Amino acid sequence: MFMIHAHVTSWFLALILFFVTYMLYKKNAGKKSKIFHMILRVLYLAILATGGHMLAGYLTDPGIVNNGPIIIKGVLGLVMIGLMEIILVQRKRGEGRLMNWVFFWVSLVLVLFYGYIVLG
Ligand code: HEM
Q1: Best mutation site among 3, 9, 10, 11 for ligand 1, i.e. most ligand atoms within 8 A of its Cβ?
Q2: What is the rounded average pLDDT of the residues 96-101?
Q3: For the segment 70-91, what is each residue's pLDDT rounded down to a tens digit?
Q4: 91 touches ligand 1 (CB under 6 Å)
């Protein structure tokens, strides 16, 4: 129970920080954006630690026959972290790629769908 709350809190905060950092890079707020980006990276670790811990628990539980959905959920979570990082680094360099945002929103919808509806 603690892990799931820590997990949801960390990805929720990460999403907010992601958008704030994105805006800061867009405004060329040099040092400020760097600090927010660093806090966001710490949150990635919190997401990975809590998600990874729960995932390990599920994978070693002999009572769970079908591990597919939880593995897909984990992979989608990894993809989300990767996309947030790619989008920010590209924004920092002054590049912007529409496709990354398409992937970002599709992955977000899918990860929420898997987290809340498939896994319940
Ligand atoms: C930004 C990235 C992520 C988002 C938005 C996200 C979202 C979610 C959501 C919505 C849930 C369901 C919460 C609930 O039932 O109250 C969840 C649970 C879970 N997530 Fe993530 N997650 C992310 C990253 C990850 C990563 C990287 C992993 C694995 C390495 C992971 C593994 C898990 C596991 C194992 C559960 C438990 C499912 C259950 O008990 O029903 N997540 N996540």
Answers
A1: 11
A2: 94
A3: 999 999 999 999 999 999 999 9
A4: no
* Buried b or exposed e, range 26-39, using 16+ CB within 10 angstroms: eeeeeeebeebbee
What is the total count of domains within the chain? 1
Domain extent, residue 53, equals 2-118
Gap from CA of 33 to ligand 1 centroid (Å): 26
CA–CA separation, 16 and 10 (whole Å) = 10
Residue from 54, 73, 76, 83 whose mutation best tests the ligand 1 pocket (most atoms within 8 A of CB): 73
Q: Tell me how far apart the alpha carbons of residues 31 and 114 are, in angstroms, rounded to a whole number.
A: 36
